[in-house]
Amino acid sequence: TLATGTGKTYIAFQICWRLWTIRWNIQGAYRRPRILFLADRNVLVDDPKDKMFVDFGDARHKIEGGQVIKSREMYFAIYQSLAKDERRPGLFREYDRDFFDLIIVDECHRGSSRDDSNWREILDYFSPAYQLGMTATPLRDDNRDTYAYFGNPLYTYSLAQGIEDGFLAPYRVHRVISEPDAAGWRPYAGQTDRHGRVIPDDEYHTKDFEKVVALRARTEAFARHLTDFLKRTNRFDKTIIFCVDQDHADEMRAALTKLNPDLMQQFPDYICRVTSDEGQIGRGHLSRFQDLETTTPVILTTSKLLTTGVDAPTCKNVVIAQVINSMSEFKQIIGRGTRV
């Protein structure tokens, strides 16, 4: 268990590289080990595969598209590519149970921690392999228990330790509360939402905004506050805004675009939305955002896509424009800005 930004991927690479170079495997045969790096999002496997694990060269392979290749040694996959669905019983069954010698599970506090998860079925199937779970935020609740499956951490390095030792940047919380959040909000008779539907007469609060009812004025108020904040500090400080969903991220992008016409005219990609809908275009925006030598994009609006596994040392501000009910999720999100 290591805090976000303190080197989980680097440690995973070192373990894999050392075992690979000495030809360790569970059978004791004279061959290199077959290792699977497993996660639940493409960005969590693509980034290590293309960067940190590049020294493995042609031994690398990403399992995707229903293709079964067994001639490589360093495999990368997301659960969804291996799991069963309505079309097939599970691609993972195309491999022998003892095919992999080691499985590294990144962000192991998510799906695989649940007893009834389809993803757990994959880990159970490959039970002969050594399985190493990595996370910054282990969970222990009624439905998900990271410890129950992976056991107690072999090593723990906390966010506070990382900040104290100088490996992570300290953070300061700047809280902003809009009038609807503070006092609640009630629609006037016949008021419609963004889709033109009449909003039911009721009193709405923070937990309802952008889920039950969308308040464009509230989004615009937050965008105005952020714009003013950046004008007071530095309009080119890299900023990630975590919105409620993809529609909210798009509305936030539009609101910020209207408030920053001068920079948008000079830099068309000053503000970009990066969600799963953007696909390759969004990954391009993210790549330029992460680049130390690139000025723009400066502001990214997103929802869930960038909460984990995104190494963005250029990020100065993290804006949480959604309700966070979990300390583990809060730590994951602020981890986008604590790297030094």
Can you summarize the main beta sheet? Answer: 5 strands, parallel
Order of helices and strands: HEHEEHEHEHHHHEHHEHEEH
Number of strands: 9
- Order the strands across the largest sheet as they lie in space: 2-3-1-4-5
Level-2 CATH architecture of the largest domain:
3-Layer(aba) Sandwich
Terminal-residue CA separation: 19 Å
Count of the separate structural domains: 2
Globular, elongated, flat, extended or rod-shaped: what is the shape? Answer: globular
CATH top level class name of the largest domain: Alpha Beta
Q: The CATH topology of the largest domain, please?
A: Rossmann fold
CATH superfamily of the largest domain: P-loop containing nucleotide triphosphate hydrolases
- The tally of helices reads 12
Which structural class is indicated by helix and strand composition?
A: alpha/beta
Q: Cα-atom Rg, whole angstroms? A: 22 Å
Average the pLDDT over all residues and give the rounded result: 89
- Stretches where pLDDT is under 50 for at least 5 consecutive residues are none
Can you tell me about this structure?
The chain has 340 residues and is of the alpha/beta class. It folds into 2 domains: 8-163, Rossmann fold (3-Layer(aba) Sandwich); 179-334, 3-Layer(aba) Sandwich (Rossmann fold), CATH 3.40.50.300. The chain is built from 12 helices and 9 strands. The protein has helices at 8-21, 42-50, 79-82, 118-125, 146-150, 159-164, 179-183, 216-232, 246-259, 261-266, 279-290, 327-334; strands spanning 35-39, 60-62, 74-78, 102-106, 130-134, 238-242, 271-273, 299-302, 315-320. The strands form 2 sheets. The protein has a 5-stranded parallel sheet with strand order 2-3-1-4-5. Strands 7-8-6-9 form a 4-stranded parallel sheet. Strand 7, helix 11 (279-290) and strand 8 (299-302) form a beta-alpha-beta unit. Helix 8 crosses helix 9. The chain is globular and about 70 Å long. The model has no long low-confidence stretch (mean pLDDT 89).
